[in-house]
């Protein structure tokens, strides 16, 4: 008997193809890429597995009803007509998240309120009692998506965004989002088959995500809770089987993962976060300036980092980015160096031609993930030797 149903995994701009590949590798059916989303088929166990294992997903939502809607009265009526007893009881709590792309519906909080009223009124009229709203820690998070005249009602199986991995308790100013970090690593081609360096590691997010990819550790194994654990039909035994099966697929890592930072506080935070993720044996962090460093391995090195930015750096931008280029040229032969920047002007000062530029967003900032290939010896000699 096939108990599959349709689900949607939400993601960041530019990660749709990565997420679709992850879903296929996990065993999802009928995978279709959308905009910042990928839809797919799977059963309840697969929903648990998607939340646990996907690195580039922000949410896994389960659509339960869709209809056309032209005004607020029709929205109220159609929400009211749904059988909410299947997913809610009078002693459970709920919250509504609304996304709008509509000329008729323009205020998401107002739509959330209207949907809440319809659900509460239905319970009150049927049972004489009603479930309460809890915006922060609801038992059920309901997702309402209106695009023009089409409304999708879904259950949010994740709860808090899946970038809340559970290992990061200490952060620096403007830390990189864990889903973004993981996606950038995958875009860079990181597969755990070489040594790795983050020379400006901040609170250690790239280092931790790189180790988890290298060892094939489920992305959200350290997370405290998923929303589906509060659902009426939650199967704890099945979820434990999914966890055990996923952990059985981890692999050993035989290279080095290294992080540098000049700030003692950043080094401490990195070490703490890495310990929280149970990855201390794989990652070495030390206080060091990238600009005073040399390549720590004779083998190929994979480098991914997020250079700091801010007001102070604006004055030194030209010098800072020129130093990145000089250090790569002089000290890092045999290295694929990738970094993300929202300062597109600054790239001119690196003094190297990037071999790739990928458009991504860091929060709301349009950015580029750039790649610089540092050859062993001169580039000319490399191609002559191939002949």
Account of the protein in words:
With 387 residues, this protein is of the alpha/beta class. The protein is built from 10 helices and 15 strands. The protein has helices spanning 16-26, 44-53, 72-81, 108-127, 178-187, 205-214, 236-247, 264-276, 311-331, 379-386; strands at residues 5-10, 29-33, 37-42, 59-68, 93-101, 132-133, 140-147, 150-156, 195-198, 257-261, 283-287, 301-305, 335-341, 356-362, 365-374. An 8-stranded mixed beta sheet has the order 2-3-1-4-8-7-5-6. Strands 11-10-9-12-13-15-14 form a 7-stranded mixed beta sheet, covered by helices on one side. Helix 8 links the parallel strand 10 and strand 11 (283-287). The longest helix has 21 residues, at 311-331. The chain starts with a strand and ends with a helix. 39% of the residues are buried. It holds the Pfam family UPF0020. InterPro entries: RlmKL-like_Mtase, RlmL_1st, SAM-dependent_MTases_sf, THUMP_dom. Residues 46-157 form the THUMP domain. One of its GO terms (biological process) is methylation. Keywords: Methyltransferase, RNA-binding, Transferase.
How does the SSE layout of this entry go?
Layout: E1 5-10, H1 16-26, E2 29-33, E3 37-42, H2 44-53, E4 59-68, H3 72-81, E5 93-101, H4 108-127, E6 132-133, E7 140-147, E8 150-156, H5 178-187, E9 195-198, H6 205-214, H7 236-247, E10 257-261, H8 264-276, E11 283-287, E12 301-305, H9 311-331, E13 335-341, E14 356-362, E15 365-374, H10 379-386
Helix pairs in contact: 2-7, 3-4, 5-6
